[in-house]
């Protein structure tokens, strides 16, 4: 059975079960021009803490009813998903007449309609239930946004493609600043919590497909506080917007705008008020004036169930009845993302991930890789690295937040050489997506700097569920030879060089150097003739079978034991730690991490995510450097083994890999120009 037919061959009846709801309401389409001012930080704090706001059942029902009214007016039946900010799926509503599946967009030169006969690669051309794509869109809007920025799936589309901004007129520019972020929040992530039983409200939750770049997903706000997201799926194309220079009239986007009426992001923090490298981001191509319905006149939710559609339960995401659930307030114990106590961290601005019973899921701990390194990271060293990185963040100017001159807000993760989580913290209003991504980054930098990188990749297997047997995964293992040939180094990926995420990202682009048309693709990427956000190369090769396993679990309504394991990739287990590999939530290929060394030996890594990529780089790099100055026991990689000592000949020129790139004059309280120079 081919991958493409897997989804249509399995019954989707489990996704169509009905359940009754009640209530409803109406609202204005007018978005607030600006967010209410946050309460000022206390004398001890540098940040304001978001108010405890959450979507009620009545809110969710109103949002769905408004979306249904616009979908009816647009004559496009759709699936509507609503989530809260921690990622809990609060409802999925399938309108009558909605098709069973949508199709992941074909590759640039692939697929059945271009006459080439070349098969799609990666996830291209795969049929997926609208429920999965709608949830991914809703989570993208919720996870990318905060009180200082509101990003949509259209924003995501703009920042993950091979050129930034994506357009026929920008060929030759570098890839998007968050190139690769779509393969985060994965359904196999060991960080992301899972819904199994009612009451499983701890976040961050996983996404069935990672983050979405298909228009039709937006964040939801109450009183200026992000409380969730809405996602709409109903057409036959799960894709992305390749041309920023025109205006699309996208029905899924219009339906989502109607749904978020009176829950819309404040205008002054939307993506189109934020610029990156001189380019203003895009929030939406349409607005309330383009609607064909009046959200204020939408019918009540209770009149829609059974007439316009049904609540659609999704295995692993909602109760079996599909009944509407209330949202959880970010910052509460029930959400699993809360302020740290004074016994956990002395800094009052620290947020942690909690288990719902008051326990920090990832407190600072000592490394467990003593069998592999001479001097593993101690608990004190881990705590110091985290605290020093948090201090750098607090002093740094934000790039993606409004108002201007706001402080950066990020998530910070530290791991050992096994990829074991040694500690995770967040600032009070950092975007949720950065939690999982910071861990991916920490593991990625540590993995590619590790003596075991090549042997792990060469030992990769296929999923027996998807491939029929646990055969070697040659798509993954072939990257080892490709890297060694590309770098002209037969010892590559054996720990001889230190790779930051910026370095590995250089090798993961469909052009090398990044964006320069006519040059070869990096050895961790696919060729541009095959590449798309759904087929990136090693990043996607590692976790594709996990996504397919998870989709099968959903479609067959199987028990939780049949779901993809809570450990991404099919790399071999670490000898000293059964049931653990080094990349248990996948890899990330945009900047924001560095490996950590003691006496020239790799001992772990730090990852940072949530603001501009140069800020992320700086916080990780200076966090390790400053911890080393304080402790005298650790530091960044020795200068002579960093990846920026590697050059690759391209078209007669030697192109140097990058290690980190720090912003100029990055601090709010200092005029220091280049804080990373000479370190």
Outline the fold blueprint.
Layout: H1 3-9, H2 57-74, E1 79-84, E2 89-95, E3 101-104, E4 127-129, H3 130-143, H4 153-159, E5 217-222, E6 225-233, E7 237-238, H5 251-259, E8 275-276, E9 279-280, E10 309-311, E11 337-339, E12 351-353, H6 379-395, E13 411-415, E14 421-426, H7 433-448, H8 453-458, H9 464-467, H10 474-487, H11 501-506, H12 538-555, E15 593-598, E16 601-609, H13 613-631, E17 647-650, E18 653-656
Parallel strand pairs: 3-7
Antiparallel strand pairs: 1-2, 1-6, 2-10, 3-4, 5-6, 8-9, 11-12, 13-14, 13-16, 15-16, 17-18
Explain what you see.
Among the domains are: 19-35 and 57-106 and 130-333, 2-Layer Sandwich (Beta-Lactamase); 336-451 and 590-639, Haem-degrading domain (Beta-Lactamase, 2-Layer Sandwich). The chain is built from 13 helices and 18 strands. It has helices at 3-9, 57-74, 130-143, 153-159, 251-259, 379-395, 433-448, 453-458, 464-467, 474-487, 501-506, 538-555, 613-631, and strands at residues 79-84, 89-95, 101-104, 127-129, 217-222, 225-233, 237-238, 275-276, 279-280, 309-311, 337-339, 351-353, 411-415, 421-426, 593-598, 601-609, 647-650, 653-656. A hairpin with a 2-residue loop joins β17 and β18 (653-656). The protein is globular, with a radius of gyration of 23 Å. Mean pLDDT is 93; it is low at 1-29.
């Amino acid at each position: 059975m081919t991958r493409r037919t897997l989804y249509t061959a399995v019954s989707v009846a489990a996704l169509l079960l009905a359940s009754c709801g009640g209530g409803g309401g109406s609202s204005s389409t007018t978005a607030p021009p600006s967010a209410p001012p946050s309460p000022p930080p206390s004398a001890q704090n540098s940040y304001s803490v978001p108010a405890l706001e959450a979507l009620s059942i009545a809110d969710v029902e109103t949002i769905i009813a408004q979306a249904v009214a616009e979908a009816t007016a647009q004559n496009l039946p759709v699936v509507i998903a609503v989530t809260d900010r921690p990622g809990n799926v609060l409802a999925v509503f399938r309108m009558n007449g909605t098709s069973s599946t949508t199709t992941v967009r074909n590759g640039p030169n692939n697929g059945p309609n271009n006459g080439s006969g070349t098969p799609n690669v990666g996830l291209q051309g795969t049929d997926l239930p609208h429920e999965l794509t709608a949830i991914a869109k809703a989570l993208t809007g919720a996870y990318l946004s905060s009180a200082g920025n509101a990003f949509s799936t259209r924003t995501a589309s703009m920042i993950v493609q091979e050129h930034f901004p994506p357009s026929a007129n920008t060929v030759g520019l570098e890839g998007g600043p968050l190139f690769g972020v779509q393969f985060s929040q994965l359904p196999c992530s060991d960080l992301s919590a899972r819904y199994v039983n009612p009451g499983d409200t701890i976040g961050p939750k996983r996404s069935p497909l990672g983050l979405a770049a298909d228009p039709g997903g937006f964040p939801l706000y109450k009183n200026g506080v992000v409380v969730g997201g809405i996602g709409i799926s109903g057409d036959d194309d799960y894709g992305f917007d390749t041309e920023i220079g025109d205006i699309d009239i996208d029905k899924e986007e219009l339906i989502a705008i109607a749904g978020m009426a009176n829950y819309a992001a404040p205008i002054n923090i939307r993506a189109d008020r934020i610029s990156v490298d001189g380019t203003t981001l895009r929030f939406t191509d349409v607005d309330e004036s383009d609607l064909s319905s009046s959200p204020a006149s939408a019918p009540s939710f209770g009149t829609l169930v059974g007439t316009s559609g049904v609540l659609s339960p999704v295995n692993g995401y909602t109760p079996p009845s599909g009944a509407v659930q209330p949202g959880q307030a970010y910052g509460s114990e029930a959400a699993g993302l809360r302020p740290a106590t004074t016994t956990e961290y002395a800094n009052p601005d620290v947020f942690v991930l909690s288990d719902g019973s008051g326990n920090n899921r990832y407190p600072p701990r000592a490394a467990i890789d003593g069998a592999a390194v001479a001097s593993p990271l101690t608990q004190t060293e881990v705590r110091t690295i985290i605290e020093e990185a948090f201090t750098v963040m607090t002093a740094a100017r934000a790039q993606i937040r409004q108002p201007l001159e706001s402080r950066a807000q990020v998530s910070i993760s530290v791991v050992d050489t096994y990829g074991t989580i040694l500690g995770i913290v967040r600032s009070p209003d950092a975007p949720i997506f950065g939690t999982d991504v910071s861990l991916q980054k920490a593991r990625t930098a540590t993995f590619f700097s590790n003596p075991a990188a090549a042997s792990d990749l060469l030992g990769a297997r296929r999923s027996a569920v998807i491939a029929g047997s646990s055969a070697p995964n040659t798509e993954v293992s072939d990257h080892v030879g490709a890297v060694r040939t590309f770098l002209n180094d037969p010892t590559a990926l054996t720990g001889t060089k230190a790779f930051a995420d910026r370095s590995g990202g250089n090798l993961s682009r469909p052009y090398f150097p990044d964006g320069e048309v006519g040059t070869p693709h990096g050895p961790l990427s696919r060729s541009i003739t095959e590449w798309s956000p759904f087929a990136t190369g090693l990043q996607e090769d590692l976790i594709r079978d996990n996504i397919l396993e998870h989709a099968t679990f959903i479609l067959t309504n199987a028990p939780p034991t049949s779901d993809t394991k809570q450990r991404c990739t099919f790399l071999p287990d670490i000898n000293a730690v059964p049931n653990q590999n080094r990349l248990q939530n996948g890899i990330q290929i945009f900047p924001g991490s560095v490996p950590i060394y003691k006496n020239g030996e790799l001992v772990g890594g730090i990852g940072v995510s949530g603001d501009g990529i140069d800020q992320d780089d700086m916080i990780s790099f200076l966090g390790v450097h400053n911890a080393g100055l304080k402790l005298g026991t650790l530091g960044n990689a020795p200068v002579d083994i960093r990846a920026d000592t590697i050059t690759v000949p391209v078209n007669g020129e030697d192109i140097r890999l990058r290690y980190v790139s720090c912003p100029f004059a990055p601090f709010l309280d200092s005029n220091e120009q280049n804080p990373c120079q000479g370190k």
